[in-house]
Amino acid sequence: MMAAAWADLAALGSTARLWTTDDAALADAAAELVRELEAVDRACSRFRDDSELARLNRAEGKPFAASGYLFEAVRVALRAAAATDGWVDPTIGRGLRLAGYDRTFTIVSGRTPGAVRFARAAGWRLVELDEDEDRRSIRIPSGVELDLGATAKALAADRAALAAAERTGAGILVSLGGDIGVAGPAPLGGWPVRIADDHRAALDGPGAVVSLESGGLATSSVTVRRWRMGEHELHHILDPRTGRPAPSCWRTVSVAAASCLDANTASTAAVLLGEAAPVWLAERRLPARLVRVSGEVVCIGGWPAEAGMVA
Does the pTM of the predicted model rise above 0.85? Predict the structure, then answer.
C-alpha cells in the first residue's frame, strides 16, 4: 500500500502528485520534486518569456548556448521524433501558438474566441545540436519554434522519481498531469493506477485500475485540453503534417513503457496514427489501452482485459 502522498501542487500548467512507500521519506522526496519542477519550468516552458526555450525560439537562427537541462530536453524530443517517424515533432511550436495555445491552458480556455490559423511542423531534422562540451548549443532556423510539451513533462516525471528514490531509498511514484514515472522499490503488488480521460479525476472515481511496478505510464487524450477559436473547436494534439488538431478515432490512449518519456511519446503518436495505432504499438511490444470516440475499449500488448473490451 502507498504509505504517504503529497498532492495537488500546481505545476507546468497542470498538477503534480507524489507518493512514497515511506512516510519518513516524504519531505525529502517532495524537495526533489519541487527542485525538478522549477528546473524544467525555467528551461522548457513555452509560456514564460524568460525561459530558455522562449529565448531559443527568439534566437533568429543563431546558435543558442543551452543549459544541460534544455540540451537534454531537446535531445530526447528529437529522439522521440525519430522513434515515431516524425509523428511527435517538437517543431510544432508555431502551429500551437497560431492555434491559440500560446499561454497556459487555463488562460487559453477562458479567452473570447478569435481567429485561428494553422501551420505545419517545420520538421525535426532542421534542429541542430552541437554536443561539444565547451560550446553546447542548439540552432533552429529563423521562424521555427519548438514545443517540448510531448516530452519535457514526462522527462521531468522520470527525473524527479529517480532523484527522490536515490535520495531517500524509498519507492517513489510521481505524476505530472497524469504522466507517471516510478523509481525505487514498488509496494507489494505494485502501484495501483486508475486510468481516466482527465488526470484531475478523483482517485477513487470510476475507471480501470492497473498495477505499475517500474518504468512509466502515460495517457494522451483529446477530450480535456480543448478550446474554441472562432468556428473551430481545437485540441492540443496537432497533426505535424497539417498543424490542425488530429482527427483521431481515439479519444484516449494509455501506454506503459520502460520510462514515462517512452510511454508519453508512444501515447501521443498513437492518437495521431489513428487506426494504425494498435499495430504500431504491438510491433513495439508496448502494453496499451485505447478508447475510441464511441467509448469502445481496445487493449493490446498484455494490457489487462476489461469487460466489454475488444482484444
Answer: yes
